[in-house]
Every structure is written in structure tokens, then in C-alpha cells.
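Q: What would this chain look like folded?
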Amino acid sequence: MLLHQEIIARLAIAAVLGGIVGLERERLEWVAGLRTHMLVCLGAALVMIVSAFGFSDILGTPQVTLDPSRIAAQVVSGIGFLGAGTILFLRQEVIRGLTTAASLWTVAAVGLAVGSGLYLAAICTTTLVVVILALVKPLEVFLFRRNRSRQVVVIIDRQRASLLQIESALETEGLGVREISLRRGETPESDFVRFTFLRSVPKNVVLAAAERLQELDGVQGITL
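A: My prediction, written as C-alpha cells:
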């Protein structure tokens, strides 16, 4: 059986490591942030401690066999329900929250490692997770920016504005429109039109298109 000091140390380390990952998610204002990651890692560590040492008093009892991995194994599958709650399907081909769900799943694994006493593995994994979340994203954006779409949100007066003219103005500036979505505002003068382009374009081209749109009748505002 573990000493009380060791139990406290393992739970504290799990909370700290989960909090390190949670800080990065909290920085981006995700729903699953600091507290969620700390609780997941702490809970997983406790489950691992209970699974490995919680039944030591009945070891050696006739006709009783124990598998210390069975309870801990449920964390791996059970965390999926929590992770699914962070995934948002905004619209076709646009999904947010997958990375946060993956970080929750990984933090649960970190908690299991701490609970079993594998401190080095837990610390190394936490370090790599923070590197992946904080440093790899800018590299990903740089390498694959040509495959990402850009959006322009135009606030229009639907009684005066013409969607055909707005789309034509964008295409004149070289912005191929892939998708158009319209959301009605509280008044006829505050409708939102979102234009999604086929590819990423230079900033100067987008600014030129915005200037052209401002000249059209019925355009109340533009958000890039």
C-alpha cells in the first residue's frame, strides 16, 4: 500500500500537469480549459491509484483474483464521452474542438501515468503536448495556409443590397466564392452575409475587395 505522502504527491502532480495543458487551452478561451483538464488528470490519477492499490487488503483471499488494469482501462474509453462534448459541428466541413478533445484524452493518460508512478513518462508527455498545442499550430498555419479558406462577413441592408453585385465584386478582385450563407439580423439593415473563398489570398487582395464592397449600395459594414 502507498504511503499517505506518496498518494498526496501523485494527486498533486497530476493536477499540476493537467493544469499546464489546461492553461494553453484556456488561453484560447475554449470551454474545456484549465479546471477541466486539471480535473480530468486528477481523476484519472485517482482511478489508477484505486485500481492498483485499492484492493490490496483482499489479496491472497482464496478464489479471489485481481486485475489492477481493469478499472484504469475504463478511463481510456470513458473519457471519449467528455471529449465528444467539446466538438462543435459549425457547418459542413467546419468542425471545432477536435484538438481540445484530443488534449483531454491525452491528459487522462497523463493522469494514469502519474497514478501508477511513471513520473518521467507523464512529465515528458505533458511537455510534448504543450509543444504540440502552442508551437506546432503556427507552423501548421504557415505550411498549409494555401489550403485554408478565407471569409468576409458583410452587413447589408437587404432592401437595398444585391447579393449578385456583391459576389460579382468579389470575383472581379480574384476571390472565388465557394460558399455563401445569409443570416437575418434584428432589423432589415443588419443582415449578415458570409462569403467563403476557394483558397487563401494575400491580405492586400482582401483589402482591395473590401474597399470595392464599401462602394456598393446597401453595404453597412465589412468584417474580414
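The chain has two domains: 4-143, 147-223.
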